[in-house]
């Protein structure tokens, strides 16, 4: 019996998070363990082993568990695999940023890459955002394909001149003579307890500027497909990740495991079909929208949840089509309300064909219009919660 | 009458077809002109001119270097004529741009380079066209040395479709192969240049990047960030500070705590070079290029130069400096005059020859200005093009929601 558990341990060490399905008396019990370090998994296996004996789990069940586990990938790992594959595919791709090499990445997103590719392609930079962002842009102009990591996008503000004036505008200013194939990536938006200077969402700021593509993935599949597309894109792409999503596991389809799995930039995805209201969101807020939709479904309200995937170019068509079906719209984002992503979506709906189909004013659910506070109770109430989404949906539908 | 062993320059140009006596200007011989050419030909043979000469050049101050560039430079006749022609073209192009700006045919920003010609020409003489170069907004001269034509440059200034950036960039955003502009944000081009150098090192083609900035930009933080990384990673980057004594209207003494710009790189070796002498600049650039190509990492050069015009066309340039100062530089250190004097005094060219080059250059500039004034403006269809490279055509919102404009790569 325990020999099977030994084999299981080998599989376990590959993944950060284990979903363990234990079949107990015709009931299925989900146990989520957020495992941060590899050496915890052996203990987990022992626990399972002990429990399995108690609950009469057969070896074949363990095999099923392994199969299910193999398809679960965290966002962090999806990003890691995407970068690994793109680094392998194209010699010109390289990664630079603070702590990306020897530290394995501030959030471990680039774990193992320096060991595999070395100093030439995974470059640790000093803490000089403006300098290294400029260097990355210059390298892109001269024929390389850099991935420039900002430890968080808050620090990209120091380098924002290089992103906008040197990267985004150059192809236009040179009338097509000089392209800039670069990806700026890093965590964006609110995290947990990091306070005001480390919690700003930059989707609206970067989404404002022509010449940039701005992408905001939610799931592991999004992260993988969009990062690959971003790296292969010949234009500057701002890739907004989310720190709180890094450790979240998602199921990955067979198709998404392929080395050439690309998600087109500029196309949204309908994560959940519905008839009563369209809920548009991006990044971490999509999780909350789906949770809210699950709660609302019990009350008979079917939400159509759209995962934007791309901020710029915005897939207005997908939103319009959905609104023309559901007649109601709310947008949900973590960023501030004024001049934000939601504001743009609402303006486009107003200006487009879907306006005539609205039965109620479209509204935005956003972060509170304040710098992010530190105390947990304050922080929790500074960003949309599931109850806020449910409240807004109900208000829109009853209005 | 006397036998001629050499072709002599014809004294004057006459369209007559019967022989007449004249005195040849060159050899003061009485001769019969029997055949008249319709065009004055500068026909002195090369045997007459010195093919090359060696010139003493100013010693460069050094920082963290054992030795500097050589104290003598060899100039061949061909090189001399080429430098003269290029500098003269640059000078006339800038003066013509001044004229066109005052006629309101050029608008917006126009930062003129006259007075600093030796820098652009000297640098280009010290590197190859396969090397890379990036500079700030005073870029017309470099656009020329890096392969742009006068026509393209002037048409870009006037915002016409024949411009080097199809009229979409303007004075500050001109690009050619291995020339990355033309950058409007002061100092931003320095990290970009180091990035180009990183690509040179990465791709292993033994190319380097010349990265220029001014005395005003030299105080920018991102430049020091770049010094650090370029030095750490031994990037093949020549940082060049074109010190023309004034950052817009602020003199160097009022802007920098240390005006030894060649030392500001601290751990990066530096050279202070006479930027008004094209040979000095060339030798220093060759020295610096050698330093970079041997894998020693970046090097810094300060070119001490001067601009005759103000910062830009909106600056008369006399509120923060005296006319006498400008006149003094013009009379004592003008780069074109210096080269001309050197060549003439060493019998490397004749006055007529150089005058002829002047005439040709003037004509080229006139033609270019004519083109720049008459070429049509870019078509409105081009408004939204060139947003993304290698992308399918897309729609761009116009000024109102009903206007959808087409955009292609």
TrEMBL record, chain A:
Domain (Transketolase-like pyrimidine-binding) ranges: 73-248
Transmembrane segments: 6-24
Subcellular location: Mitochondrion
Source species, domain of life: Eukaryota
Keyword annotations: Carbohydrate metabolism, Glucose metabolism, Membrane, Metal-binding, Mitochondrion, Oxidoreductase, Potassium, Pyruvate, Thiamine pyrophosphate, Transit peptide, Transmembrane, Transmembrane helix
Known catalytic reactions: N(6)-[(R)-lipoyl]-L-lysyl-[protein] + pyruvate + H(+) = N(6)-[(R)-S(8)-acetyldihydrolipoyl]-L-lysyl-[protein] + CO2
InterPro entries assigned to the protein according to its UniProt record, in alphabetical order: PDHB_mito-type, THDP-binding, Transketo_C/PFOR_II, Transketolase-like_Pyr-bd, Transketolase_C
EC identifiers of the protein: 1.2.4.1
GO molecular function, one term: pyruvate dehydrogenase (acetyl-transferring) activity
GO biological-process terms attached to the record: glucose metabolic process; pyruvate decarboxylation to acetyl-CoA
Obligatory cofactor(s): thiamine diphosphate
A GO CC term attached to the entry: pyruvate dehydrogenase complex
Record's function text: The pyruvate dehydrogenase complex catalyzes the overall conversion of pyruvate to acetyl-CoA and CO(2), and thereby links the glycolytic pathway to the tricarboxylic cycle. The pyruvate dehydrogenase complex catalyzes the overall conversion of pyruvate to acetyl-CoA and CO2.
PANTHER family tied to this protein: DEHYDROGENASE RELATED, PYRUVATE DEHYDROGENASE E1 COMPONENT SUBUNIT BETA, MITOCHONDRIAL
SUBUNIT field: Heterotetramer of two PDHA1 and two PDHB subunits. The heterotetramer interacts with DLAT, and is part of the multimeric pyruvate dehydrogenase complex that contains multiple copies of pyruvate dehydrogenase (E1), dihydrolipoamide acetyltransferase (DLAT, E2) and lipoamide dehydrogenase (DLD, E3). These subunits are bound to an inner core composed of about 48 DLAT and 12 PDHX molecules. Interacts with DLAT.
The protein's name: Pyruvate dehydrogenase E1 component subunit beta
Automatic annotation (TrEMBL), chain B:
Domain of life: Eukaryota
Record-level Gene Ontology MF annotations: metal ion binding; pyruvate dehydrogenase (acetyl-transferring) activity
Gene Ontology cellular component list: mitochondrial matrix
EC number: 1.2.4.1
Main localization of the protein described in the UniProt heading: mitochondrion
GO biological process: one example: pyruvate decarboxylation to acetyl-CoA
PANTHER family cross-referenced by the UniProt entry: PYRUVATE DEHYDROGENASE E1 COMPONENT SUBUNIT ALPHA (PTHR11516:SF60), PYRUVATE DEHYDROGENASE E1 COMPONENT, ALPHA SUBUNIT BACTERIAL AND ORGANELLAR (PTHR11516)
Protein name: Pyruvate dehydrogenase E1 component subunit alpha
Gene: LOC109062383
């Amino acid at each position: 019996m325990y020999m099977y558990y030994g084999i299981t341990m080998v599989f376990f060490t590959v993944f950060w998070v284990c979903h363990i399905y234990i079949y107990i008396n015709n009931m299925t019990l989900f146990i989520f363990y957020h495992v941060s370090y590899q050496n915890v998994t052996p203990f987990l296996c022992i626990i399972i082993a002990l429990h399995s004996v108690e609950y009469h789990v057969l070896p074949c069940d363990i095999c099923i568990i392994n199969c299910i586990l193999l398809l679960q990938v965290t966002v962090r790992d999806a990003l890691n695999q995407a970068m690994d594959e793109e680094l392998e595919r194209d010699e010109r791709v390289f990664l630079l940023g603070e702590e990306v090499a020897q530290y394995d990445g501030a959030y471990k997103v680039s774990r193992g890459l320096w060991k595999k590719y070395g100093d030439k392609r995974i470059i640790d930079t000093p803490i000089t955002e403006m300098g290294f962002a400029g260097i990355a842009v210059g390298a892109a102009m001269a024929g390389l394909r850099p991935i420039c990591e900002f430890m968080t996008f808050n620090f990209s503000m120091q380098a924002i001149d290089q992103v906008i004036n040197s990267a985004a505008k150059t192809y236009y200013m040179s009338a097509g003579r000089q392209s800039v194939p670069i990806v700026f990536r890093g965590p964006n938006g609110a995290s947990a307890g990091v306070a005001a200077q480390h919690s700003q969402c930059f989707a609206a700021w970067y989404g404002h500027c022509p010449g940039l593509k701005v992408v905001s993935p939610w799931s592991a599949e999004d992260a993988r497909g969009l990062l690959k597309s971003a790296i292969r894109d010949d234009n500057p792409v701002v890739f907004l990740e989310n720190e709180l999503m890094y450790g979240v596991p998602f199921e990955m389809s067979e198709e998404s495991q392929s080395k050439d799995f690309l998600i087109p930039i500029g196309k949204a995805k309908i994560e959940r079909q519905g008839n009563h209201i369209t809920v548009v969101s991006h990044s971490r807020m999509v999780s909350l929208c789906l949770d809210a939709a699950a709660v609302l479904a019990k009350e008979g309200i079917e939400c159509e949840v759209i995962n934007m995937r791309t901020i710029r170019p915005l897939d207005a068509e997908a939103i319009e089509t959905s609104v023309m079906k559901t007649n109601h719209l709310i947008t949900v984002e973590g960023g501030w309300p004024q001049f934000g992503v939601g504001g743009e979506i609402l303006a486009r709906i107003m200006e487009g064909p879907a306006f005539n189909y609205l039965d109620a004013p479209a509204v935005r659910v956003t972060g509170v219009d304040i710098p992010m506070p530190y105390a947990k109770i304050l922080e929790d109430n500074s960003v949309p919660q599931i109850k806020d989404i449910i409240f807004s949906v109900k208000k829109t539908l009853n209005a | 009458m006397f036998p001629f062993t050499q072709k002599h320059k014809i004294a004057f140009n006459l369209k007559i077809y019967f022989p007449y006596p004249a005195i040849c200007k060159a050899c003061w011989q009485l001769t019969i002109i029997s055949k008249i050419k319709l065009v004055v030909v500068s026909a002195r043979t090369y045997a007459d001119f010195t093919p090359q000469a060696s010139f003493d050049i100013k010693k460069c101050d050094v920082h963290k270097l054992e030795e500097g560039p050589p104290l003598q430079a060899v100039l061949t006749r061909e090189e001399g004529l080429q430098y003269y022609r290029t500098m003269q073209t640059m000078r006339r192009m800038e003066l013509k741009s001044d004229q066109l700006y005052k006629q309101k045919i050029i608008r917006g920003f126009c930062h003129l380079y006259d007075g600093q010609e030796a820098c652009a020409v000297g640098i280009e003489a010290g590197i190859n066209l396969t090397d890379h170069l990036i500079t700030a907004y005073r870029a017309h001269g470099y656009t020329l040395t890096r392969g742009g034509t006068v026509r393209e440059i002037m048409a870009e200034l006037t915002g016409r479709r024949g411009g080097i950036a199809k009229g979409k960039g303007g004075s500050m955003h001109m690009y050619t192969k291995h020339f990355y502009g033309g950058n409007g944000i002061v100092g931003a081009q320095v990290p970009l240049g180091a990035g180009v150098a990183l690509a040179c090192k990465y791709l292993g083609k033994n190319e380097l990047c010349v990265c220029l900035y001014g005395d005003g930009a030299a105080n920018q933080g991102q430049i020091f960030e770049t010094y650090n990384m370029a030095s750490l990673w031994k990037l093949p980057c020549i940082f060049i500070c074109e010190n023309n004594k004034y950052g817009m209207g602020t003199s160097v003494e009022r802007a920098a705590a240390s005006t030894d710009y060649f030392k500001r790189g601290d751990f990066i070796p530096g050279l202070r070079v006479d930027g008004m002498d094209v040979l000095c600049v060339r030798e220093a650039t060759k020295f610096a290029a050698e330093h970079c190509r041997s894998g020693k990492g970046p090097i810094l050069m300060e070119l001490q130069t001067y601009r005759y015009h103000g910062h830009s066309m909106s600056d008369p340039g006399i509120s923060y400096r005296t006319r006498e100062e400008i006149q003094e530089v013009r009379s004592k250190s003008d780069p074109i005059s210096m080269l001309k004097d050197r060549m003439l005094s060493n019998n490397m060219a004749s006055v007529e020859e150089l005058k002829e080059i002047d005439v040709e250059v003037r004509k080229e500039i006139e033609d270019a200005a004519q083109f720049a004034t008459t070429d049509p403006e870019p078509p409105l269809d081009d408004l939204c093009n060139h947003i993304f490279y290698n992308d399918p055509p897309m729609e761009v919102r116009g000024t109102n929601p009903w206007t959808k404009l087409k955009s292609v790569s």
